Structures are given as structure tokens and as C-alpha cells.
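With this grant's support, we have settled on a layout for protein records. A representative record follows, to show the layout.
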Amino acid sequence: MQLRLTRHQLNELELMRAGAYGTSLRYLIPAGDTHIATLLVDDVVVPSTFELLDTEATPIARVDVTDSLTTGRGTWIAGDVTMLREPATAAFAEIRPRASLEMLDHATLAVGNDVADRDDALILVDHGDTEALSRAVATARRTDRDVRVLPRPAAAHIVTDDVDALLTHLAEVMFASTVTTRRRAGRARGTGIVVLLSGLSGSGKSTIARQLTRRLRAESHQRVTLLDGDEVRAMLSSGLGFSRADRELNVRRIGWVAAQLAAHGGIAVCAPIAPYATMRAEMRAMAEEHGRFVLVHVATPIEVCEARDRKGLYAKARAGEIKEFTGISDPYEAPHDADIVVGEGDEGVDDAAERILHAILGTAEASYVI
């Protein structure tokens, strides 16, 4: 039998080897004590010996089973652990639990990895998201604080509400004599930005987005990518129709690509219609996993959009030739959470791009002129 460990189970094995659960390398069956290393498997019948694999299916340890207990959740394993080879080095190995690491007098355990402005040493938690952890560590180090990283174990025997207490205990065993636990949720986001320009067909989204992209490339040091609605449909969403489900999938794909660009520190400018609040909220959630999200409502009135209609789409929609056309036979849910509204009145493209640029970069005055 071989068992591929999850990221959190690998963390638990790491803590065990560092002495967080005592001097023995051993899994125990839960019996009231929460401060133990446990292993829960799906199999009912467990062999006397089996191997533990890392996430790349490489054998790293052997478990010699001494006892087991089958419950409705699976089978708990008790047994001694023998390491077969060193696991791959985890991120920030130099500040993770190890016997030679100097103990601190006091530290703050940030369970949610929020890096507040404080002077004391900080313990961040490795929840399995390497990118998020890297951003949090980098942010904390900029304040010249002593930073440690605590692996979050699987702790399958503990209910969610008690995990923070276990983390506090582990932090005191491995890192500091006294630990203050801060449970406020948060994460250190990157510098990436996703800008979504949403508006009716013919509102000028694409024109403003192109001008904004030029301005950002001149004013910002970040890599800027334009994901325009028509181009994305041709390259990324070819084959999709214009039903609600297809339009939601189109925006979801744009949102995913934009979030990946933001994850690597770039700026993604997106200009789909994005008529539904739910799809914009989903796009915001994906973006804010990695950085900022700026929602721009291009609020050009429908009569102006219809007068500009070079493709004749509005006329076809009113004649019933195009079904589910936004603004005519299908609703456009105007965003109430827009960060900036442009396109109203006689505002031109340059002025709209200028205001969006200011909202993104916070520059009082731009120096680039097209």
C-alpha cells in the first residue's frame, strides 16, 4: 500500500520530524489529546507496513503499523515512521521549524497571514498556497521584523474551531516562549491589477480600454495586457454562443486569464460587456486572490450606443433577428459597486482614460500624451 500525502499531511510530517509532537516519529490514534500527529486513510483494511509518498508520488517514508481504528470517517493509523529520503525542500526552509532555530521571547501568530504594522516578531502560517505565503513573507520582511513560518498540519482529528488553538500551541513549542494569536483574516496581495470595463455594446469600452492600455504602458513599470471582448471571443472563447451560460463562461475565462496575469505582477485591462452582477463578482473574487480589482462602468446611454451602432446589431435585435441581446431583449445590470463611472454626458475617450488611470495609479497628473 502507498499513500500520497496532501500538502497539509506533508506539513504534519515536517512538524513531527522537527519535534513538535515529541521526540518520536510516530502517528497516534486520537484519544482526547489534540497535540498529536495523526493519519487518517480511506482504506478499511490496512497492511502492516506501507509507504508515504509526496505530492509528486515519490516514496519518502515508511509506516510500520502498530494499531488502527476504523470509524465513519475512515481508518486512523498508529505506527512508527521511518524516513526513506529527504522530502523536497519546502519554501522558506531556513525559517520553518527545526531544532537549531533560535527561540524567540515573544511573537505574534498571524493565523490569517495578515501583515499588520507592528514591531514584534511574526509567525506566518503555511496553508499550502506558496504564492500567498511568499507575498506575506516579503511584506513582513520589508518591515525588518523577525519572521517565522509555521506549517499548517492536516490535524484531521480536530474540528475547525480548535485548529487555531493547535497552531498557537505548535508556535509556542517551535518558535517562541509566548505567542499572541491574531485571527483576523487577510492575505498579503501582490501588485497585480485587473481592470474591468463593463458597459453596453457600443458604449466605447474597447476604445477607452485601448487608450487606457497605452497610458498604463507609458506611466506604469508593470506589464500591461489588453483582453478586449471581440479579440478574446475569437481567440479564447471561439465556439461560444450568446446564451447567458455562454456569456458567463466567456467572462469567467477572461477573469481567470486576467487573474493569472495579476498573479505575476501584471495589469490586465478587460473590456467585455459583462452584463450580470454575479459574473462581475466572480471576476472580482478571482482577481482579489492575487491583487487589486478595479471595476469601471462605461455608462454611455443606450440611445447613444444605438446611434453609434456600425454593425447594425441593435437594429437586428429590435427586429428579433438576434436573441438575448444586452439592453434590448436581455438585461444589463448596471454595477452599483463600480470604482469609477465614465462615459456619461459629453466625456471623451481621453478624459475617461485619464480618470481611470488616476484611479488605478493614483497619479495627480500624467505626463504622457497620445
Observations:
- The two ends are 66 Å apart (CA to CA).
- Residues 363-370 have pLDDT under 50 and may be disordered.
- The first strand starts at residue 2 and ends at 4.
- Residues 244-263 form the longest helix (20 residues).
